[in-house]
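We treat protein structure as text, and this decision shapes the records that our systems exchange. This encoding replaces a full spatial description with a residue-level series of whole-number codes. Below, we set out a record of this kind in full and without editing:
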Amino acid sequence: MSEETVISIMQMAIKAIIYASAPPLLLGLVVGIVVSILQTITSINEQTLAFIPKILAVFISLIIFGPFIISTLKELFLTLYTDLVSFVH
């Protein structure tokens, strides 16, 4: 296996990981910032108040973006599986 092939495989894997993890992470980040701003405005210093909305946002984003995440990972897997013979040689 040549260096170009290894680099290509790593680029595909990193791109798939970023595409698969971005929606839940970004939605959790946005909800966390909004909750933090609301806590600052209202002077509420409850630690658990920030976790529950973020957890719910991540679960909802996994439900909404689940098909996209699965198709992204499936595409990577199928590409690697179909090219497996060329990787071995």
